[in-house]
Amino acid sequence: MKKHLIAGRYLRGSAFIFAVLASSCATKKHTANQTLTLKTTSGPGGTSVATATVGAPKKEGIKKFSDVITGKTKADSGLFNTYKVDGKYYYEIPDSLINREMLVVTRYVKTPGGLKTFGQQYGGEELNDQVWKWERHDKQIFIRVPSYSIRADSTSDMYQSVKNSNLDAVLASFDIKAFNKDSTGVLIDVTDFYNGDISAIGLSDNVKKAYKVSGVDNTRSYIDTIKSFPINLEARTLKTYRSAESPTDNSTGAITFEFNTSMLLLPKIPMKARISDERVGFFGQRQTDYGTDAQKAQVTAYIHRWKLEPKDPAAYSRGELVEPKKQIVYYIDPATPKKWVPYLIAGINDWNKAFEAAGFKNAIVGKEAPTHKQDPEFSTEDARYSVIRYFASDVENAYGPHVSDPRTGEILESHVGWYHNVMSLLRDWYLIQTAAVNPAARKAQFTDEQMGELIRFVSSHEIGHTLGLPHNFGSSYAYPVDSLRSKTFTDKHGTAPSIMDYARFNYIAQPGDGVTHLYPQIGEYDLWSIKWGYSWFPGNKTPLQEKEILADWTNKKAGNPLYYFGRQGTSIDPRLQNEDLGDNAMKASTYGIANLKSILPNLEKWTYQKNENFSDVAELYNEVLGQFYRYMGHVTTNIGGMNENFKTYDQKGPVYDFVSKDRQHDAALFLNKQLFDTPLWLINKPELGKFDNGVTLNRIKAMQVAVLSNVLSPSRLARMYDNEAKNGANAYTVAELFTDVRAGVFNNNKPDAFKRNLQRGYIENLKSLLMTDASFSFPGLTSAQLASWGFTPINIALSDIRPMVRAELKKIDTGLPKGGDALTTAHFTDLHLRIKDALNPDKAIINFQGMMMRGINNSDIIKENTDSGYMNCWPKTPTDY
Predict the structure, then answer these.
(1) pLDDT at 377
(2) Residues 824, 750: contact at Cβ < 8 Å?
(3) What is the distance of C-alpha 274 from the center of its chain?
(4) Per residue, what are the HEC states of 208-277?
(5) Do you know which Gene3D superfamilies this protein is assigned to (predicted)?
(6) Following CA atoms 462, 465, 470, 475 in sequence, which dihedral angle do they give, to the nearest 10 degrees?
(7) How far apart are CA 277 and CA 611, in angstroms?
(8) β-pair type (328-332, 364-368)
(9) Of 432, 462, 491, 822, which sits 20 to 30 A from 200 (CA to CA)?
(10) DSSP 8-state assignment for residue 796
């Protein structure tokens, strides 16, 4: 997986929390002919900046329409009539569309090769989306960019106050060139606007900085086409930017892109919003609403969903399945290899089962894109169409974004990103996770049918995101571990109640169990979430009235793990982890390791390819190490873990409670047995001899120390002290953890190279806890906000950590054996010196950043943008520990 796609994995702790939680803004004074800079929400890749030059009005007068648009000029009729005259492009904007809100989406059409920055570098991927309003002021037309962060109903006493403090920014201005013949519209010249260096419809500032772009070269840029349709405009441009670091050919001093900017008219009457509930997972948006009766500024969250209404409301109300007025349609990119098209379509159509739970039949359909002969106006960049775009890329990923109406959350279109090399990742994981029980996976290349079924599974997962569903990392916890060893159970249920979990393939089933259905499917939770989000209520109920009905539904499901939603991004709850299965990580991982032990020695035999080198064996060997490392992370999260169950006042019991003492203790013992006692089975010398040039043993040692560092993270210790203060003898304490870890790390009077490395790692981790003087905090963020993500704050200098660490170091020092061979003696002498240095430091060392980065299970950190619905869905755990 490329670094730019899963930034959290490589930036780790502090960088991730800033990326998810932090925001910044800048202000600048503006005068005529200066550049106005706006911060706007973009698609995959975060925030981009829209810029436009706002100049003083020109002096030339308004001409007759016929003087500008001659009789021979052909109009392209649609949302705006458009004209091309002598290389210039004109919009005829009718008065009826002045001040109407329009969604503007800019995508790449074609990109140069070699781009490896920010993840949005392929034709079809989104750069930016924002809302425009065309506004008339005297002899000019302005593009305004509305903000929807605060609101008040027009009937509210607060409405005018909100308007006064929420002024829409101006993106650009245009002189009116003429009025149309019946004075019902105005004519403007948009040539310079589309040819200009405006980030809202071109490269973002981030990409410009990466390639040292200094501006658009107009001599090598042009507007290709502007086409008008009934509810949208499509403008395609080619722009050449002057670039000091072109990724293709630096001798040109330039970098060239093709863009398509879609402008889609938003509904005059917005869809009724559905208020979100954190107990049911949906992407959404938040607004501060000053028009409620609450005695404070009320933050209201709405879910993202398509607008589905029954064709026959009476039949729907009788409980019959009814087709929607408008079906959700996804087209398959014509660039897709033909053999995968039926499987991608099947993954889309599989969601009809879920929509039936909401009362709709034939609600969603996948189709091949029409040919040019069938529909010459069809374009995969057109914002009216949702498309699965296929990228010729070595990136091992796929993602499912969507674009929604910021006023209500209505999903308007989606362009799923499908990278060709996701098949390589699927092959690796399916083999490593199932080959022990699945002979069909024991090969270097799968049949088209096998790969097609895996593609179908990924297609369903990504389409789920485009329907508004985020990852449900708590879903897989619903199924008992031993149930996943049952053929009857797995044939019916797959691996988890939700295809939106990262519950990949069944690594728990053992040889002889007879399990053959090994991957996820649309399950019980998915049916429930679609029912919750898409059910239609008759009687024109208000969002608040619908909220009451939906809350009652949710309360009735509460406590049933099949319908549990567990959010992504937190590291405090061991149920909410990616790539895990079952309700007990220690038990599940034990089964998983047993399977790895049978897979590893067979990699060379199963991947044999005539006249090929051993790169495939090396790749899969790394996958074994990565899978093993995932299991260690799954188990570690139980130590100092807390269960998170969001509730309302109507429900009994805690929202947060600690993982039981016995389970935390079991997790520590598991690590002693499976990891701290060196997993020598990972060292398969015959296979390593084919590709390893001296790095594997060090990586295993690094893995051991990395997990140990995770166990001893300040946040984990902070939660354990909190548990002890609240629950006393029922808590698994830090003292007990130190005792258990010491027993696993110092259990041999003649430690081997791995154990010596681990013992030094333990001392250094304890030393770091002693010598870190900085408080564990981020300015501007509350303790509750930090703790919500797993960064549980603690002032290490004033906590009980240091007294306990000093006591632990003294116990280790007095318990070290004497004598032994030269290497063993030197090792224990070194440990004595390290402990002495830790207990009697010359000076304190502030290592705040390092402590922040330690203890974050990097297999749990994925880049996520909940506003856009963007998800990187197929990250690999790095094995460069």
Answers:
(1) 86
(2) yes
(3) 23
(4) HHHCCEEEECHHHCEEEEEEECCCEEEEEEEEEEEECCCCCCHHHCEEEEEEEEEEEECCCCCCCCCECC
(5) Collagenase (Catalytic Domain) (3.40.390.10)
(6) -50
(7) 57
(8) parallel
(9) 462
(10) G
